[in-house]
Amino acid sequence: MEKTMNIAVVPGVGYSHLLPILQFSKLLVKLHSYLHVICLIPTLGSLPTSSKTILQTLPSNINYTFLHPLHSKDLLPLGTTLETQLQLTVSHSLPSIHQALKSLVLRTPLVALIVDSFAVEALDLAKEFNLLSYIYYPGAATTLSLSLYLPKLDDETSCEYRDLTEPVKISGCVPLHGRDLYAYAPTLVFLFLVWNEIMIIICKFKLIIIDDTFYVCVTQGC
Fold this sequence. Notes:
By secondary structure, this protein is of the alpha/beta class.
């Protein structure tokens, strides 16, 4: 009988981030029965009913822990955008994530940390505990490849993207017209991954290599 191996996962804040990483976790333990997943859940305010419902469907080899809850008034003054609040919730939850990982390492053979794209800050903690590091990205592979390529494109472009006369050639993707590219700002979070050569897990796509040092791991059936 194979020895049980434990994996911690950290979703972003909210149902739309919690559901995909839990569905991935279900697939993971179904394909590899020796794996056990512990989900560390950051929360902003009270947990919505939809999130409580999905947690009730988890198999016995997926457990979850709610991190110390935060509230909007604890983060920034009134008027802060929801997106910023969600990101700051993860930032303010890092001490709780650290404590949870420390406890898990002491009690279990914890081998890896998988985080949502809105929880990449937690990957720094994986180094401290000598864990394998991954990000789970449920979006389209084209979007991911474009996000990773935009910093280079920005350096090479002196005009607005919409004014480019030639289609933009992105590794693993069909060429895109500049007018179809979205804003640069939301992609900054992915720079951390490139610089630190973190592996990304995506669903339902063939293996693609962004460059010689960056790898995308793929699983089918998510």
